[in-house]
Amino acid sequence: MTLNRFANRREAFWRGIHDALGAPVLVLFAGMIGFGAMGRTHGFDAWITGLTSLLMFALPGQVVMLEMLISGSSWLAIGFAVTLTSTRFVTMVVTLFPQLHRRDRNPFLYVWVHVLAMTAWAVSMREFPKMAPKHRLAYFMGLALPCWLISPIGTVLGYFVAGWVPSAVTLGLVFINPLFFLLTFTDVKPWINRIAIGLGCLFGPIFYVLDPDSSLLLTGLVAGTLAYLADRRWLRPRPTEVQT
Amino acid sequence: MNADMQGWGTWLALSAACVGTYICRAAGVKLSGHINQDSEVFRWLSAVTYAMVAALTVRMILMPLGLLATVPLGLRVLICALSLGVMVSHPQRRLVPALLTGTLLMLTYGVMRTSP
Question: Looking at the whole model, is its pTM more than 0.90?
C-alpha cells in the first residue's frame, strides 16, 4: 500500500468520517438503541441511561452496570466490575497509539482517548498500516468522533422508542453488536492474532463459568500468552527473531 | 425502598463506572509512551487484546444477558454461522450483507415466535 494515500490531514480526517458512516456508526447506533431500550424496560432514568453512553462509552461495561444495579450490588462493587471489563482499553490503546506520529503523541491524547471504542479500534488497526503515520490521528478522529457522538443519541432514542417497537425488532437490534465483532475477526491477518482469537473463544466461556468478573482479563492473559508463545516457537521466521 | 437513596446509589455507581473506564483508557495512553510497535511486548499485548475481545464476543453469543437469552442456543450459533458464510463468500468481505443476514434472520425468528 502506498504511504501517500492522503494529501493532508484534512483529507485523512474526512476519509475517517467516510469510513465511520457505514457499518461502524450503524452498528454502534443499533447497539446503543438496544441499550437505551434495556434501560427503559428496567425502569432507569433517561438521564442515567443517556449519560452512561456519553461518559462511559463502553457498551459491555454499560450492560454490566445496568445488570448489577438491577441485582442491587453496591456502587463500589459495580465500579470495580465495570473497571475490570474496561481493562481491554489499556491494551487497545497500547496497541493503537504507538502507531501514531511522534508529534501527535502528546498530552492531548488523554482527551482524544475517550472516543476510542472497540469498533474504531478494529477499523484503525486494519487501516493504519495503509497510511503514513502523520495522517493516522486525523483519520482516527474522523472515525471515532461520529461513533461517540451518535451513541447518546441512539441511547436516548432507544429509551423513548422502547415499548412501541415490537420485541422482534429489538431482538434483531441487540444481536447486531456480537455479530459485528464476530464478523470483523475474519479480517484479522497475522497468525498470532488469529490464534489468540481462537483460544479466546475457547477459554472465554470456561473462565466465565469459573468467575464472571475477572474472566475477560484472565482469558486475555492466558489465551494471548499462549498465542504469543506458539507464534514465537513455531510460526515466526528465524531471521526476524535475531533482528529484534 | 427509599427512592431518594436508590437514586443516590445509582448516580454513585455511574460515577464509579465512568471514572474506572476512563482510568483504563488513560492508563493505556500512559503506557503507550513506553512501548514500541515493533517490540515483543507489543506483539504479546496485541494477542492479549484480541483474545479478550474474542472472549467478550463469544460470551455475548453463547451466554447473553436479557432478550437474546430467550433465543435457543442452537439457533444463535446457526445464524452466526450463516452470517460468517456470507462474510467470507467473497474475497472483498461482505460486511454489510453479512450483518443484514444475521439481523434479519433474528428478526424473522422474533416475528415467527410472537405470531401463533
Answer: no
- A44, A63, A78, A91, best to mutate vs chain B, most B CBs in 10 Å: A91
Identify whether A2 is part of a domain.
Answer: no
User: Are the Cβ atoms of A56 and B18 closer than 8 angstroms?
Assistant: yes
Is ipTM strictly over 0.85?
no
Query: pLDDT tens track of chain A, all 244 residues?
Result: 456 788 889 999 999 999 999 878 887 888 888 788 878 877 888 899 999 999 999 887 887 788 778 777 788 878 877 887 787 788 889 889 989 998 888 899 999 999 998 889 988 988 998 899 999 999 999 999 999 999 999 999 988 887 677 888 878 877 877 888 898 888 888 899 999 999 999 999 999 888 876 777 788 889 999 999 999 988 877 555 444 4
Q: In this structure, are residues A139 and A125 in contact, taking their beta carbons and an 8 Å threshold? A: no
Same domain, A170 and A235: no
Residues A130 and A231 in one domain: no
Task: Please give the residue range of the domain that contains residue A20.
Answer: 9-187
CB A81 within 8 A of CB A213: yes
Same domain, A183 and A195: no
Domain boundary among A187, A205, A231: A187
Residue A38: which residues within 8 A CB-CB, separation 6 or more?
A63, A66, A158, A162, A174, B66
Q: Are A179 and A228 within one domain?
A: no
Domain termination residue (choose one: A152, A172, A187) = A187
d(C-alpha B59, C-alpha B62), whole Å: 5
Considering only CB atoms, which chain B residues are within 8 Å of A182? 57, 61, 80, 83-84
C-alpha B56: how far from chain center:
6
